[in-house]
Q: What sequence folds into this?
């Protein structure tokens, strides 16, 4: 029991630490971190916020969600990640505290939704993961290749590094997708 | 419901789905509003206090302006090179009485008359064509950020990250257009069009 309590306590502490690390760059005294580096903003803070949301969410009570519920969950994940990949969203999050607050809130929700979304239709999961991998790849490729500075706040070098990071995320998502497909095939052949 | 929520949020962020970059929104806003630039109070490399609208009226020139700081080692240098080429073009085409260039430094704390003078020497800027000014104080910079969408951020090396564009100002001191750093020829073209229209009006 002591062991269980300890692990539970450690888990909570870890989740809170991740949350603090994720939120700190949005606070005025540390905002220079996201203001000066696009990779830090897009490849560190945003994934950290999603991770924090995921860690803070309790295990889902339901084990199975309806198609409508899981479609809504996947759409939230898909649309929120798309939204925070727009150059104007990143710029406005730096300029306006209200948009930055929305960023923190929406991405924490995204993290929480990710925790429950895998208890749903597998084909739907494969479809959305595949679509997101393609989106990350194309946005990353564009960020890396274009000569136009897309974000007012960042230098083009910063944008190119972010592009490479997004392509790596796309590759990781594809690997995850293949793993999930293989898992499904194994389950079909050994029911 | 999720789709409806995000449609509203996307619409709010992108000004009804019209812009995916802040820069394009800034340009559309400036083009629509054509603000008077008298709020841009400046000090030139001779120590004279003025403002951009006043400079345009006084010289009776269309001005192509850029925002820089003279210690910049990256984008401002390429903007400076573009201005050098534009200066050559203006002199060669005998347009110096109608068209001028203005480099506006936003580094209000470190820029001085001396650094502007040094920049003039380094860039071989002709004082009849290319004006070098700095913003008068931090208040002017704040107004420029709000009114013109100028983005200036200090980084770890105490350099600045800033946006770049050419703003074309009419002889009355109003914004005529805003162009990318590689679109200097378009900026000159709109200036020439304005000059041609003015000449027609006089005739």
A:
């Amino acid at each position: 029991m002591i062991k269980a309590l300890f692990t539970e306590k450690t888990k909570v502490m870890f989740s809170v630490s991740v949350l603090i690390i994720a939120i700190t760059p949005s606070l005025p005294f540390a905002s220079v971190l996201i203001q000066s580096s696009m990779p830090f903003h897009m490849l560190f803070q945003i994934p950290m916020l999603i991770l924090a949301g995921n860690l803070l969410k309790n295990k889902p009570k339901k084990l199975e969600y309806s198609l409508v519920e899981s479609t809504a969950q996947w759409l939230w994940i898909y649309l929120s990640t798309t939204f925070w990949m727009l150059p104007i969203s990143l710029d406005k999050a730096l300029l306006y505290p209200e948009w930055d607050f929305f960023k923190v809130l929406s991405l924490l929700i995204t993290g929480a939704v990710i925790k429950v979304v895998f208890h749903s239709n597998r084909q739907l999961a494969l479809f959305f993961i595949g679509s997101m991998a393609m989106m990350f790849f194309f946005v990353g490729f564009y960020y890396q290749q274009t000569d136009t500075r897309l974000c007012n706040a960042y230098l083009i070098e910063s944008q190119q590094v972010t592009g490479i990071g997004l392509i790596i995320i796309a590759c990781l998502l594809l690997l995850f997708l293949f793993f999930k497909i293989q898992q499904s095939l194994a389950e079909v052949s050994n029911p | 419901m999720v789709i409806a929520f995000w449609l509203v949020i996307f619409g709010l962020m992108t000004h009804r789905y019209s812009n995916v970059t802040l820069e394009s929104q800034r340009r559309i806003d400036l083009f629509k509003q054509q603000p008077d630039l008298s709020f841009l109070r400046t000090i030139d490399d001779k120590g004279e206090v003025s403002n951009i609208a006043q400079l345009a009226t006084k010289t009776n020139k269309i001005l192509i302006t850029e925002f820089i700081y003279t210690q910049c080692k990256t984008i401002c240098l390429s903007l400076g090179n573009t201005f050098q080429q534009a200066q050559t073009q203006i002199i060669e085409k005998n347009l110096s009485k109608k068209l001028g260039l203005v480099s506006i430094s936003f580094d209000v704390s470190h820029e001085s008359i001396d650094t502007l003078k040094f920049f003039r020497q380094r860039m071989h800027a002709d004082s009849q064509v290319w004006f070098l000014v700095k913003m008068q104080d931090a208040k002017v910079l704040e107004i420029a950020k709000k009114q013109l969408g100028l983005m200036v951020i200090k980084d770890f090396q105490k350099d600045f990250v800033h946006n770049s564009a050419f703003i074309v100002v009419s002889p009355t001191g109003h914004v005529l257009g805003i162009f990318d750093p590689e679109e200097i020829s378009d900026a000159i073209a709109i200036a020439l069009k304005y000059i041609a229209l003015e000449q027609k009006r006089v005739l």
In short: Residues 156-189 of chain A form the longest helix (34 residues).
